[in-house]
Amino acid sequence: MTPEALVRAGTRWAAVPFVPEIRLLTAAEPFGLWDHSQREDPPFWAFPWAGGQALARYVLDHPGTVHGRRVLDVASGSGLVAIAAAKAGATSVIAGDVDPNAAAAIAINARANDAAAVTARVFDMAADDASPAEVVLVADVFYQRELAGLALRFLRRAAGHGADVLVADPGRAFLPAADLSPLTSYQVPVLSVLEDTTVKTVTVYSLA
After folding, report:
1. Which residues of 15-41 are buried (b: 16+ CB within 10 A; e: fewer)?
2. What structural domains does the chain harbor?
3. Facing residues of 72 across strands?
4. 12 pLDDT higher than 80
5. Does pTM top 0.90 for this prediction?
6. pLDDT tens-digit readout, 93-105
7. How would you list the strands of the sheet with 164-169, edge to edge?
8. How far apart are the first and last CA of the chain?
């Protein structure tokens, strides 16, 4: 099965609960799709996660954050945040994810939302860098210790090269709070199949 066929299998178009301006191919549940993907990680690209919803909302409500600028959305998943950046007027948006199936999902979702500025690509924070991005966006990556460390090192390098870095997180276990400055918080509706609740408090941060 090709990545595009896999993405379309078991998903349907749905508006994002906290960002209804955007619609995504969304799965009703992760497990069957996970079996088909034959990957170690769940199909993160098949759902609007809490952090991504909050960061997309923030970008749309604060378009000056990205307008006229080159943006990198890393660990992009479904491409939700990248699509929001394109709608907010970013000059270009690279939507990168380590999962090739995510890259396929991003491309489909971007086309469906008329987000022509979005380019989907496979992206590994351990091997790739953020240049020439002027803004780096990342949501919900601090749920696992090694990934959190990798992400923080990547974001520090990006900031060191002059990029503005925005992070959204719903209080995951390995959030590096000492390195972040809170900007705002949202109450974000989430799928109960993914979280053990129906609403998560998500904070949007800048890298300190």
Report:
1. ebebbeebbbbbbeebeebbeebeeee
2. 3-207 (3.40.50.150)
3. 94, 136
4. yes
5. yes
6. 999 999 999 999 9
7. 118-122, 92-97, 70-74, 135-139, 164-169, 199-207, 180-189
8. 43
